[in-house]
Amino acid sequence: MAQLKVKDLMSTSLVTVDARDTVGSAQERMRQAGIHHLPVVRSGQLVGLITHHDLMHSCLQHIERMEGGEECSFQRVVEVGEVMVTDVQTVSPDESAARAGCMLRELGIGCLPVTDAGRPVGMLTRADFLDVAIAALERDATRTDRPATPPPV
Predict the structure, then answer these.
(1) Using CA atoms, how far apart are residues 64 and 40, in angstroms rounded to an integer?
(2) Under DSSP, is residue 50 helix (H, G, I), strand (E, B) or coil?
(3) Which CB contacts under 8 angstroms, 24+ apart, belong to 6-9?
(4) Is residue 16 within 8 Å of residue 39, measured between CB atoms?
(5) Model-level pTM?
């Protein structure tokens, strides 16, 4: 396999959210797009990251703080900027895919926003690496399923 770059694996159909959007709108965007990670942007620049896990954790903390009879308005009131991660690890589109995969594994994270001059241009996830591994395994299985060609006589 040739030296793969991040740009060869990343998803470019990027869905983003603004830090002033509500948590509920972020959850809805994730649901509609079938994704679990949203880059948070302000004026086109990456300022954070919000994940499905972050949203669930924040909602649970909010529920624990609620007093009896208080309406759970978390999704309508809390802004993404209040629960997003701001210390976001990013990667360049020209970074080697191997290095990016090592970053995901070593940092124990599920995604790397791909940025160019601070602007998000894609998203690289663990699932992207699984797709590559599955494709390679399927290619290998196809090669080994073929009967060996007998040597010329």
Answers:
(1) 26
(2) strand
(3) 6/91, 6/92, 6/93, 6/94, 6/95, 6/96, 6/97, 6/100, 6/112, 6/114, 6/122, 6/124, 7/93, 7/94, 7/114, 7/122, 8/97, 9/97, 9/100, 9/124, 9/128, 9/129, 9/131, 9/132
(4) yes
(5) 0.79
pLDDT digit string, tens, across residues 96-134: 999 999 999 999 999 999 999 999 999 999 999 999 999
Give the pLDDT confidence of 63-80 residue by residue, as tens digits. 766 665 555 566 677 889
Taking alpha carbons only, the member of 7, 10, 46, 52 closest to residue 27 is 52
H or E element in which residue 105 lies: helix 97-107
Token digits of residue 81: 């900027």
d(CA 58, CA 82): 9
Give, for 45, the enclosing helix (H) or strand (E).
Answer: strand 45-51
Which of helix, strand or coil describes residue 121? strand
64 burial (CB, 10 Å; 0-12 / 13-18 / 19+) is exposed
